[in-house]
Amino acid sequence: MNTKVNLAGVELKNPVMEASGTFGSGMEYSEFVDLSRLGAVVTKGVANVPWPGNPTPRIAEVYGGMLNAIGLQNPGIDVFVNRDIPFLKKYDTKIIVNVCGKTTEDYIEVVERLRDEPVDMLEINISCPNVKEGGIAFGQDPKAVEAITREVKKHAKQPVIMKLSPNVTDITVMAKAAESGGADVLSLINTITGMKIDVERQRFALANKTGGMSGPAVKPVAVRMVYQVANAVNIPIIGMGGIATAEDALEFILAGATAVSVGTANFFNPTATLDVVSGIEDYMERHNVEDINELIGIVK
């Protein structure tokens, strides 16, 4: 039985990874999860300098999921290179570094620092607010998506994954823009913008007012967007959004995703990723599927 999948020439032993920001850079979860069982480990967002993140409170539970406005708090590329890469290299898994920035130059700086590091792929988080454009996210304007993809590709040694924001009118327009810019892979969806108000205290539940909604409630939106994008572009997709079980993951694969990311589920079930890996294997046995690639995008 073959569970290997290929993302732009990078072979993963299985299609399962965890979503950036829900797993640290693997250290926190390595007590619960054998990282070598995962197809890849996706790091928390890494910026060119340390980011303090947003003021607290910055997490709120909502029906069917959660809101977060962490603000991509991270210790920056220097700490990441010295501490996190050596830790991850101890495991037999692929390393995907999530890169964030406030300007194109910020992204390029991180991408260039990673050129000669032993990491396998770069995931570019274009849901970051573009400071030069007055705070609109890079991922909400197709021209900006294409331009930043093209710039990153000029400087990147590793294959580039562009992570798409769902907070747009038509996700396929953004996907095609990233593909035109030279993206090797797409990952989607990032969080959906939401809000919660504490009615007793009559104030916002998050200091930031809004936050990114993730968890089981976003899955039908995510599956629909992955399906649309899979039928609009010719590059592989990493599907994510509300995956908690193997059945959830398989929905994305049948819709057209080559690989899947487990995010919020890690918070309420630390072994969620491993459950998905073994559940996919069980499904393949039950359905006499010899090769996972036979399942990708077969629901038309």
What does this molecule look like?
With 300 residues, the chain is α/β, with parallel strands linked by helices. Helices cover 29% and strands 20% of the residues. The chain has a single domain (5-55, 69-194, 213-295), classed as Aldolase class I (TIM Barrel, Alpha-Beta Barrel), CATH 3.20.20. The chain contains eight helices and 16 strands. The strands form four sheets. The protein has an eight-stranded parallel beta sheet. Helix 4 (171-180) links the parallel strand 9 (160-163) and strand 10 (185-188). Helix 3 (142-155) packs parallel to helix 4 (171-180) and helix 5 (219-230) packs parallel to helix 6. The mean pLDDT is 96.
What descriptive keywords fit this protein?
300 residues; alpha/beta; 8-stranded parallel β-sheet; 29% helix
Low-confidence stretches: none
What is the count of β-strands? 16
Structural class: alpha/beta
**Span between N and C termini?**
24 Å
The CATH topology corresponds to TIM Barrel
CATH class, anyone?
Alpha Beta
Determine Rg (CA atoms, Å): 18 Å
Average pLDDT = 96
CATH H-level superfamily: Aldolase class I
Strand order of the largest sheet: 3-16-15-10-9-8-7-4
User: What does the oligomeric state look like here?
Assistant: single chain
State the shape: globular
CATH architectural name: Alpha-Beta Barrel
The share of residues in extended strands comes to 15-25%
Helix content: 25-40%
Largest β sheet strand count, sense and barrel closure: 8 strands, parallel
Order of helices and strands: EEEEEEHEHEHEHEEEEEHEHEHH
Number of structural units classed as domains: 1
- How many H/I helices? 8
